[in-house]
Amino acid sequence: MKIAILSRNSHLYSTRRLVEAARDRGHEPRVIDVLRCYMNVTSHAPSIHYKGESLTGFDAVIPRIGASVTFYGTAVLRQFEMMGVYPLNESVAITRARDKLRSLQLLSRKGIGLPITGFAHAPDDVDDLIKMVGGPPLVIKLLEGTQGIGVVLAETQQAAESVIEAFMGLQVNILVQEYIKEAQGADIRCFVIGDKVVAAMKRQAKPGEFRSNLHRGGTANLIRITPEERSTAVRAAKIVGLNVAGVDVLRSNHGPVVMEVNSSPGLEGIEAATSKDIAGQMIDFLTKDAVTGKTRTRGKG
Q1: What is the rounded distance in angstroms from the CA atom of residue 284 to the CA atom of residue 279?
Q2: What's the average model confidence in pLDDT over 188-206?
Q3: What CA–CA distance (Å, rounded) separates 26 from 1?
Q4: Given 44, 49, 164, 253, which is the most exposed site by the fewest CB atoms within 10 A?
Q5: Is the separation of the CB atoms in 278 and 270 below 8 Å?
Q6: 53-57: long-range contacts at Cβ-Cβ below 8 A with a sequence spacing of 24 or more?
């Protein structure tokens, strides 16, 4: 198979591992900087050009699109889909996952366990919004934030009001969520491929920090997850429409709750913690599932 890997940086661990795994299985991978692609959007012969050449002959595409380039990256991915190239994750599913509010609403509609989450626009509603999620301590998140950036723990009423009003004053969209104290600064990253969790790790925040992201200094260890956590992760990925996803789960007093569904989960932490060839499993799934012209998003919304 000829596989396009959409990535801004060919030296990133995840990109390198996907290239290695594809080559080890006899495929022909090519890393393509999504921002250097330009497109001819036409009814009869849609095409993608890259550094002066026309990109043709690809059987499948693996999108590794960073949050900062979601709009342009998914536009390029849609163009590949229009050309009949099979995507590991489809463009509409990626845009769903990147919109935290939309993905939470989709999960809520299907009964997936979630932290109590509030969303408002007007500063006059801040007091009621805080009460709605159970009061402080609470977590305030930028909708566009990634890797723990733009996530604040407000431990008092005054702090919560100040932070929320400050974000609203900057005209950025935020979510307000209950703080799951019993999780003790830890979450579980479930790596989903197809209809199963192929690996899971527990991420623990460093002392004095509540964000467990590895980019924020958190540590990762192998963990055995429960059948309920496994089912929740698989269902969450399917509802959003992703074939490959990193589903972040917290252990709460009322069962597993989903914090986020990530459409481009990193491979370095999960492969180190579990000693599993996750990149190889992604390529194997792609080889088995890829059918030229097959682009049918799972889920709705």
Answers
A1: 9
A2: 91
A3: 8
A4: 44
A5: yes
A6: 55/4, 57/2
Q: Whats the size of the chain, residue-wise?
A: 301
Q: How is domain 117-179 classified at the architecture level of CATH?
A: 2-Layer Sandwich (3.30)
Does residue 115 contact residue 134 with C-beta atoms inside 8 Å? no
The residue assigned the tokens 């590794």 is 64
Query: The CATH number of 2-96 is which of 3.30.70.141, 3.40.50.11010, 1.20.810.10, 3.40.50.20?
Result: 3.40.50.20
Residue whose entry in the numeric block shows the structure tokens 């930028």: 142
Taking alpha carbons only, the member of 272, 141, 149, 139 closest to residue 203 is: 272
pLDDT tens readout for residues 118-131: 888 877 788 888 99
**pLDDT(112) > 80:** yes
Strand partners, 221: 202
Q: Across all residues in the chain, what is the average pLDDT?
A: 88
What is the pTM for the complete model shown? 0.87
Please say if the pLDDT value at position 5 is more than 90.
yes
Q: Which fold has domain 182-288?
A: D-amino Acid Aminotransferase; Chain A, domain 1 (3.30.470)
Helices (H) and strands (E) in the chain — how many of each? 9, 16
Amino acid identity of residue 99, one-letter, is D
Per-residue pLDDT reduced to its tens digit, 29-55? 999 999 999 999 887 888 999 999 999
Strands (E), 7-113: 28-32, 37-40, 47-50, 53-54, 60-63, 86-87
The residue ranges of every structural domain in the chain are 2-96, 117-179, 182-288
CA nearest neighbour of 270 among 250, 246, 237? 246
Bridge partners, 63 (sequence order): 6
Centroid of chain to Cα 295: 20
Q: Which long-range contacts (CB under 8 A, 24 or more apart) does 126-129 make?
A: 126/161, 126/164, 126/165, 126/168, 127/161, 129/164, 129/176
Count Cβ atoms below 10 Å from residue 275 Cβ, excluding itself: 8
What are the tokens at 270?
């999960």
